[in-house]
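INTERNAL AUDIT FORM
Audit reference: QA-55
Scope: verify that the stored structure record matches its stored sequence.
Auditor: D.O.
Record contents follow.
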Amino acid sequence: MERLRDRMRQELRIRGKADRTVEAYVDNMRVMTERTGLVPGRVTERDIKAYLEDLREVRQVAPSTFVQHVAAMRFFYTYVLPRNFPILREAKARQRRVLPDILSLPEVQAVLHALHRPWLFALCATLYGCGLRRAEGLAVATEDIDRGRALLHVRDGKGGSDRFVPIPSRLQAILDAHVCGQRIGAGPLFVSRLLPGRTVSPDTLGRALAAAAVEAGVRKRVTPHSLRHAYATHLLERGVSLRLIQQFLGHRRIETTTRYTHLTDGSLDRVQQVLALMTAAL
């Protein structure tokens, strides 16, 4: 199986897949073989259907996880061990569009100030202040900060694209204090204390934010992505154009940004005013 994994990595890299995608696809195939006990070369369409049913009905994985497993198997049986499995072209996840909880500005402030470790505060302030994805925030390095233009160079974002986002002056001061306090030279700003040479664990970040939300008395579910969503929503509420927000978030399609920001507090206020006029004489 190790030879097949090496071949899969090679085929993925030849086709320009990001390192995260390469490892995710290879790991998905590992999970499939371990859970089923089947040899990849002897898998049948029936076996794949049973495994996909297990993912959906027994393990009840998230739609995105289901789609990724299907994509990994489709790639494997197209480029590594070519086989014709129609189910891999037809399988779809049950999509349920869930609107995330919107953190207000006071809630963001309360959660961030409940992070008592300075490096965690600096990291989460960066996620919010620049609207970064979790992986983008963890990858920020000293050389990515352009102090002269007050910009952050986000490298190798989703889809392998780079972009520049503005750094607020307050965030710049927070990062300067972090760099000074941690005595950071070149390289990543948020490195693991337990595993030298590696960045902070995503799980550590997620647990810390959830605990901070509880301490701050914020009842909404708070994740690293909540800060990115709050960033986009707060910009939109304050009149920043959707096109600019699209650029800052690194979305390829404006429709993604439109769905992401959905209803803002300001638009809801205006709706309430109109509804009040409509129903005043009832």
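Auditor finding: record pair retrieved intact. The chain has two domains: 2-90, 105-270.
Action required: none
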